[in-house]
Amino acid sequence: MGHVEALTKYVTHFVDQLVFSGVEHVVISPGSRSTPLAMTFAEHSGVNHWVHLDERSAAFFALGIAKQEQKPVALVCTSGTAAANYYPAIVEAFYSRVPLVVLTADRPHELREVGAPQAINQIQMYGSYVKWYQDLALPEENNFHYARQQAARAMEEAISGQGPVHLNIPFREPLIPDFQLEEAWRGSVQPIPRAQRGSLAMPDDQVKSLFEQLAQGENGLLVVGPQTDSRLAEAVTHLASRLGVPVFADPLSQLRTGSHDKRNIIENYDALLKSQTIKGQIVPDYIVRFGAMPVSKAYLKWIQEYKEQIDHYVVDDQQEFREPAGIGATFIWSEPVQLCESLSDFMPDGNVETSWLSTWQQMNVLAKNEMLFEPGYSLNEGHAVAYLADTMPDDSNFFVGNSMPIRDVDSFFMASPKNVQLMANRGANGIDGVISTAIGTAATGKHTTLLLGDISFYHDLNGLWMAKNKKIPLTIVVINNDGGGIFSYLPQSKHPDHFEELFGTPLGLDLGPVIGMYGGTHRKVTTWESYKRALVESYESPGLNVVEVVTNRDDHVAFHRERWANVEKAVLEWSGSL
């Protein structure tokens, strides 16, 4: 067997096994050393291949597809610094539990560490940020069975570990496969079957013990942080109704939108917990948290301040320790939906009404009224979110950038019957790659609205190329306050001598020309009337639409503090200081 035949069968069997094991999308960045992989993926009829020129944006684009589909997506790049550009997205995938199969082509072993061009040390280059890693053997005679085994395991590791895996694959020249070879593909070889999976379920006696522990507390609280399981909304709200307890719903919990019962949903807890007086009077007996830690910093400080008075439980289907508050929680490693249903079985049918729940519900209404009170002045980030929530179409995605946008969504995006999935890159909370990730979520056909700041928009301009090239419809709302608004809330703002240069970082850029370069429609707004009209037009127009909302960074902090103060005043007047 010659080199070309060995190369061809090695790569075709490897790719075919990935597709058989569940890879439906691959994102390829052009390069020479990755030629065998790129051509084979393009030749295989069972996988959709996307070509993205910029590796950093390509990796985030793949991340977006994987978020949307909740299935592993493959990434292919050539050797050298191309692979290094994947790093930020791999870190995000690791912490946000998104499965990626990262395939980096490499020089053969004899060309490593000898000064060969485009050859860097790619061995375990992503360190502990991948769930599994292998440096594969070179294609040789009859080792295509080995190639299938590695592909099958990579998929199982990505799925079971809910994160990225990395296969480094060396190739010798020549690099062009011959797809006309007999049995170049599967031939008589049977693919490796997929693993059979069971759920991580608690035994009945442990569920009963947990129920008895919760029953000892009169004033309970369920908290749902960022998570992606669409089934959890129905299960956790049903459990809450049986318990008669409120549910704190993070904007990324998938609980604020949809058709499920929202009577127990509290979405304004962040504003309520900003008040030292209020938060000291409404301490629960226990908290059961599903998903990651909520976005709200006020919630984090609250549970830290009263950690000795609250019994904490963290439910997770991965055996990890996601508890950044340091509160000594009890970890329950179980499938969340199944646990909610099992706990509900111990309780009588019907909704339980309690004074504890009623208090939270009334405070939530009062807070909502104050947060959404119609502005009588210039554009602000909060009402930009509220009007966006009213306008965005049903059955769509809402992708939110980090820093201030996700916090404004937490404060101003209220419960809605619309079927809108909220997403963000909250694994590492970076502002890079946000455009590309959002475009990835839209690539498979679901319309996506992206909200982000001007600095984050600037960080990933290259990502707009994919929207132009593939004519992917996307509405982007850019909050342009000419800099990093979140720093105005931090201690750095007290040092004006260096604040603007080091933290405020005003861009001073005209966004219109770059949006036009990528074939987008740019609408710059400075009034509420023009903003609302621009949103409607963006959803009626094909392709890329960018709505630029010009706000004043100097007014941002004062606006938010005024709203929080009004919430506190309204609640205390209603309650008589609780």
TrEMBL record:
Keywords: Magnesium, Manganese, Menaquinone biosynthesis, Metal-binding, Thiamine pyrophosphate, Transferase. Binds 1 thiamine pyrophosphate per subunit. Residues 11-125 form the Thiamine pyrophosphate enzyme N-terminal TPP-binding domain. InterPro entries: DHS-like_NAD/FAD-binding_dom, MenaQ_synth_MenD, MenD_middle, THDP-binding, Thiamin_PyroP_enz_TPP-bd_dom, TPP_enzyme_TPP-bd. The keyword Zinc-finger does not apply. It comes from the Bacteria. Its cofactor is Mg(2+); Mn(2+); thiamine diphosphate. Its EC number is 2.2.1.9. Pfam families: TPP_enzyme_C, TPP_enzyme_M_2, TPP_enzyme_N. Residues 428-549 form the Thiamine pyrophosphate enzyme TPP-binding domain. Pathway: Quinol/quinone metabolism; menaquinone biosynthesis; Quinol/quinone metabolism; 1,4-dihydroxy-2-naphthoate biosynthesis; 1,4-dihydroxy-2-naphthoate from chorismate: step 2/7. Residues 213-400 form the Menaquinone biosynthesis protein MenD middle domain. Coiled coil: none annotated. One of its GO terms (molecular function) is manganese ion binding. It catalyses: isochorismate + 2-oxoglutarate + H(+) = 5-enolpyruvoyl-6-hydroxy-2-succinyl-cyclohex-3-ene-1-carboxylate + CO2. One of its GO terms (biological process) is menaquinone biosynthetic process. Homodimer. Catalyzes the thiamine diphosphate-dependent decarboxylation of 2-oxoglutarate and the subsequent addition of the resulting succinic semialdehyde-thiamine pyrophosphate anion to isochorismate to yield 2-succinyl-5-enolpyruvyl-6-hydroxy-3-cyclohexene-1-carboxylate (SEPHCHC). NCBIfam families: menD. Belongs to the TPP enzyme family. MenD subfamily. This is 2-succinyl-5-enolpyruvyl-6-hydroxy-3-cyclohexene-1-carboxylate synthase. It comes from Halobacillus aidingensis. The lineage of its organism: Bacteria, Bacillati, Bacillota, Bacilli, Bacillales. The gene is menD.
